[in-house]
Prior knowledge:
Two copies of one chain form a homodimer. By secondary structure, the first copy, chain A, is mostly helical. The first copy, chain A, has two domains: 1-44, Arc Repressor Mutant, subunit A (Orthogonal Bundle), CATH 1.10.10.60; 54-186, Tetracycline Repressor, domain 2, CATH 1.10.357. Chain A has eleven helices and no strands. Chain A binds a DNA duplex through residues 3, 24-26, 34-42, 44-46. Chains A, B: GO terms for molecular function: DNA binding. Chains A, B: Keywords: DNA-binding, Transcription, Transcription regulation.
Amino acid sequence: MGTREQIVDAANRLFYEQGFERTSFAAIAESVGISRGNFYYHFKTKDEILEAVIQARLASTREMLATWDEGSAGPLERVRRFAEIVITNQGDIENYGCPVGTLTNELAKLGHPSRAHAVGVFEVFRTWLRGQFEELGRTADADDLAMYVLTFTQGVATLSNAFRDRDFVRREVARLNTWLTEQIAIA
Amino acid sequence: MGTREQIVDAANRLFYEQGFERTSFAAIAESVGISRGNFYYHFKTKDEILEAVIQARLASTREMLATWDEGSAGPLERVRRFAEIVITNQGDIENYGCPVGTLTNELAKLGHPSRAHAVGVFEVFRTWLRGQFEELGRTADADDLAMYVLTFTQGVATLSNAFRDRDFVRREVARLNTWLTEQIAIA
DNA sequence: GTCTATACGCTGATAGAC
DNA sequence: GTCTATCAGCGTATAGAC
Lengths: 187, 187
């Protein structure tokens, strides 16, 4: 893995764990094992690293969803799998929250121009979820249902981070799965 | 209003709009109209200001809910009013997110010892909501329902902050109100 | 491509005059 | 209680040797 790629990888992780603004060049450099000076050969400003991290997240998200689409599971199972991310990533969410929601909010508070790009990750999930509901026959309100599922994940992630209560997460996932079953019964 | 109270007020607002760590002493001092030096007469460290802000938020939250309880509205109307906060505070939420969820997450990422106190604001809402559902006759699962309503507000706030789509917020509030009607029908 | 050395503003925080 | 003056440390960023 090239140095630039290592920097983006380390920054991606640190931006998630500590936040964008709090993460210093020194911390990223130390994480990668290079000097602070060498840093500026690859990225001229901190905003450039942020942009690279956002692009990497967009790419990895699209890749993950494409892999899911290629699998044998149907759209209902795929949406269930998406909702269960709050269980799969439970430890990280308890410690740091959802990487998408917390970054977009931090950039909103900073008034950062890259905020819109960060929201793009939400848009990738939204579009993908909409496609799943369309496959399930809910073409008229597929986007509404997609937004509802996104709302669910963000609400659970925020409260999982606050309360760190695994029973709560399990119950809410069960509630969403019941809701999902009702939705496809309607279609 | 005393100087100390003004400091807490300004810090409360700035912590919400800019985040805790990003808000500097200089910014708070400027907002209040005092010098940076005078600051340390009232608060010895930044963490002390944070604690004062959290205590102020706890007090104002309790006060607001007590006022609601004293009103003529029943528990169902009160819960609806709570859910509609995402519309009442729509502008601020679009710009800065939910003050409770974003502070608890920032403190989680910082590993800050006051995180638990910040979560206390969530606990105040949770306890109050639980009481409303108990009044509605859902004693067995009042806490689950309370957590669901909290999950709703946090999810909507995060996506309202990301997408800034007022139709989405309106639709989700309508969806919750429908859900609430179903819940009291069960009881 | 990677390093060391360095500039310089802003941070939280302190000391002491008034 | 409020002020000015000042501190040490860290932040991003640059210059230039290797």
